[in-house]
Every structure is written in structure tokens, then in C-alpha cells.
Amino acid sequence: MPAMLLSRREVEAAVKTLRPLPRAVTQLIELVESETATIEQMETLINADPVLCGKILQVANSAYYGLARQVNSIRSALMLLGAHAIKGITLSVAAVATLRTGRAVCEAEQRLWRHAFLCAGYAQGIAQASRWGMRVAEDAHIVGLLHDLGSLFLLTRFPAQYRPLLERAAQEPAQFLERELRTFGCDHADIGAMIADHWNLPERIVQAIATHHAPFLPEGDPRLLVAAAMQADQWEEEGFSSPTQELPMLIPLSEEVCNQIRQRVGAHLETLSQILFA
């Protein structure tokens, strides 16, 4: 018997029941976004949550970030990595914990998270190699991590409807978004943007998630973020349409540089996964 179809309104209602990000995380995002925050303010905020603090230090000290020396305080991490990098790490830790809610992660969900971690690293590496600036690079990391947030949500909230779509996606990727629309009244990009908005993330992040499968790159702040996420997606998946004619103009990286980014991120994927899912 086919799984029951849902309406966009039902999906929106389910998104509203999703736990918000911890207050410390949203406050940190607001502080960093203000551009007037001091290291002391951010340090005090993070240290007030010992579990979050510990996870941030684990990620900061992982091979993924490749620091020359180990950091054992949030102040040191902020000094060496910068506020935007710590914001990205904090959001990564919080997003995984909020969606996971302490339960075991199934194989399909693990594959989606693996894709998210790879795309986050790829998108950040693309932005860095393209010399778009530290803030854009860290935002690209966030968009890469969260671009398929809608898929993770659908898999955990509506598994009967979504698992068959994921299973068919490998054979018929071009029809995947259309099947999502028919089944849920919206696709995973729409739903990811709903969640990002529900979590009060910056509008440029919300819009980048919403448009990462759009036929053209958006204008304004999300443009480079979407370009990085699309390129990262292309490295990982086949069959999804994207404005490939625009990407080479924005991302004129040599094959050697692209391979270096992919190899570096892939080499440290397992370490990062173990920390975030411990």
C-alpha cells in the first residue's frame, strides 16, 4: 500500500514542533553577527555550557582544523580560529544534537550526515581557495552542512514517505525533487529553509539553503554561498541540475586545487563524525 501523501501545511506544522537551538547557540550567533562582540563576551557565553564547550574544543582540536598546537580553552580557540569559525563549529555541534535527540542514527541518516560533513568541508575549501574572505568561507561551511537539513528532517519525521524516495534517488536522481514536491507539497530545500528560519539563523543562510537547487544562482549575499554549496554537491552527487555555466566563472579553480580540497576533507571525515556523534 503506498504511503499517504502530505500537504505543505502538515510539513510546516511538523517543523514548528522541532526543538529550537540551545539559547547559548542563538546568543552566540547574534553576538558574532553584531560585529561588535568581544572575545570576553563570547568566551563567557560558551563556557556557561560545559557540554557545548567540551564539544567545541574537541572539534577545534581535530585534524579537520589542523591547528599547529592543541587549544585547551575557548579563548585560545577564538584567538586561533576566529569568531566566525567558532560560530560554525558551535552550530554544527548544536544542529547534530538537536536533530539526533540522543537516539541511535540509522544507516540512511548516517549517509545524509556524511554527505553534509563532506559538503561543509568542500564548500569552505572552495570559498577559501577562491579568496572570498573568512566570513564567507565560514558561512559556506554552514550552508554546506545544513543544505540538506530538510532531507534529514523528512527521514526522521516521515520515514514511511521519505525512505522510498531516497532509495529511488540513486537510480533516478533527476526526478527526486519532483517526487518530494508530489509527496510533501514542498522539497527538501524549502523545508531546510523553514528549519533554518525556525532556528533564527541569518537570512543569507536561510536563502542559501532555500535556493541550493534553483536553476540560477541568486543575487546578493547568498550568491557565493549557494555557488560553493552547488559545487560541493556536484563533487558528491550526479544528476541534479544546477547552473553549471555560472559556477566556473565564480569558481575558477584548477583540477589540482579541487582534488586537494576533496582529499583533505575526505581524510578527516571519520574523525569529525566520531566527535559529533559521540
Structure description:
The chain has 278 residues and is mostly helical. The protein folds into 2 domains: 1-19 and 106-278, Hypothetical protein af1432; 21-100, no CATH class. It contains 17 helices and no strands. The longest helix has 23 residues, at 107-129. The chain is globular and about 50 Å long. The mean pLDDT is 90.
Q: Tell me the distance between the termini.
A: 38 Å
Low-confidence stretches: none
How many separate structural domains? 2
* Major sheet size, sense and barrel closure: none
H and E string: HHHHHHHHHHHHHHHHH
Give short descriptive properties of this protein.
278 residues, mainly alpha, Hypothetical protein af1432, 2 domains, 17 helices, 69% helix
Question: What is the topological layout?
Answer:
Elements: H1 8-16, H2 23-34, H3 39-47, H4 50-60, H5 74-81, H6 83-100, H7 107-129, H8 134-146, H9 149-157, H10 159-169, H11 176-184, H12 188-198, H13 203-210, H14 222-236, H15 247-250, H16 255-267, H17 269-276
Helix pairs in contact: 1-12, 2-3, 2-6, 3-5, 4-6, 5-6, 6-8, 7-8, 7-9, 7-14, 7-16, 8-14, 9-10, 9-12, 10-11, 12-13, 13-14
